[in-house]
Write a structure and sequence with these properties.
This protein has 239 residues and is of the alpha/beta class. Helices cover 30% and strands 28% of the residues. The chain contains seven helices and twelve strands. It has helices spanning 21-28, 88-99, 120-134, 148-155, 172-177, 197-205, 223-236; strands at residues 3-5, 11-12, 15-19, 36-40, 45-54, 58-68, 76-82, 103-107, 141-146, 160-164, 184-189, 209-211. The strands form two sheets. Strands 1-4-5-6-3-2 form a six-stranded mixed beta sheet. Strands 9-8-7-11-10-12 form a six-stranded parallel beta sheet. The radius of gyration is 20 Å and the shape is elongated.
Length: 239
C-alpha cells in the first residue's frame, strides 16, 4: 500500500486533507473513492485511510484505523556525510533513508571538492520520496551547511560515535559488538579525498572512536551505505 506524509494540522477529527505535490501523486496513481492508503503524521501515528473526495488541488481521506510507528529502527542512527560532487549526496541520502537513518548531516571538511549550494529543498524532497517508497513511518531529519567542528559536536552526542579513517587500527564492527542495543549511534564518513590525519586526531580528542571499515578502500558514496547497512542490520534484528 502507498504511503503519504502530512502535518498534524492536516488532520481534523476523522479526516485528513492532502494538498500540494502529493495531490499530483494521487492523480498519477489514479486513486478512486474508497481506495486505501497509509498516511503518517510524521510524529508518532500512521493512519489507514480511505479516499472520500478527490479534487484538482486537494484530496480528503477518511480515517479507518491507526497505529503507532512500527517501521522505525530501535536505535536512533545519525549519518554524517561530507559534501560530495555531482549528485552523489542525493544518492547517499536516498539510500540512507531506505536503510533506516533517522538523521542525515551534510558537512564540509578539508578534502571536500564540492561546494555547498542551496540544495536544502532538493535534499529534503529526495529524502521524503525515499521514505514514501521504502515504507518509512517518518521522514528523517536532514541538516545541511555544517562545518567539520559542528559535525563533531553532533557526532559525540550519540551513545556510539564512529569516525572512519583508513589509518585507524580498530575495526568498527568490534566497537558495535560491544554494545548490545544502544539508544543512539552516529558515524562520519569523509569526502572523495577522505579525512586528513589532523581531522582524525581532532575526532579522537573529542572522545569519538576512530575506526576503519575493512581491507578494501571504498568510494565516498559506498562507505556510508556499507556502515549504515551493518549498523541497521545488527541493531534492527535485536527486538
Amino acid at each position: 500500500m502507498h504511503k503519504l506524509f502530512v502535518s498534524p494540522e492536516d488532520i481534523n477529527g476523522n479526516t485528513i486533507t492532502v494538498t500540494g505535490e502529493d495531490v499530483e501523486h494521487l492523480h498519477a496513481l489514479r486513486m478512486r473513492e474508497g481506495e486505501r492508503i497509509f498516511i503518517s503524521d510524521g510524529e508518532k501515528t500512521v493512519y489507514d485511510a480511505a479516499l472520500s473526495q478527490m479534487r484538482k488541488n486537494s484530496a480528503v481521506f477518511e480515517i479507518k484505523s491507526q497505529r503507532p510507528f512500527e517501521n522505525e529502527p530501535q536505535t536512533d542512527i545519525t549519518v554524517c556525510i561530507a559534501l560530495l560532487k555531482g549528485g552523489a549526496c542525493e544518492d547517499v541520502i536516498k539510500q540512507s533513508v531506505e536503510l533506516g537513518a533517522n538523521r542525515i548531516i551534510i558537512f564540509s571538511s578539508s578534502n571536500c571538492i564540492a561546494k555547498e549550494r542551496e540544495k536544502d529543498g532538493k535534499y529534503y524532497k529526495t529524502a521524503r520520496q525515499a521514505a514514501m517508497q521504502s515504507g518509512r513511518d517518518t521522514v528523517p531529519k536532514l541538516l545541511t551547511g555544517f562545518s567539520f567542528d559542528e559535525m563533531l559536536e553532533e557526532l559525540k552526542k550519540a551513545e556510539i560515535s564512529l569516525f572512519f579513517h583508513e589509518k585507524a587500527t580498530e575495526h568498527f564492527y568490534d566497537v558495535l559488538e560491544k554494545n548490545s542495543l544502544p539508544r543512539s549511534a552516529a558515524f562520519a564518513v569523509g569526502p572523495e579525498g577522505g579525512f586528513t590525519d589532523t581531522e582524525a586526531e581532532s575526532a579522537e580528542k573529542n572522545g569519538i572512536k576512530v575506526v576503519f571499515m575493512g581491507k578494501r578502500i571504498l568510494r565516498a558514496v559506498t562507505a556510508p551505505l556499507c556502515a549504515l547497512s551493518v549498523i541497521a542490520a545488527l541493531y534492527d534484528r535485536q527486538r
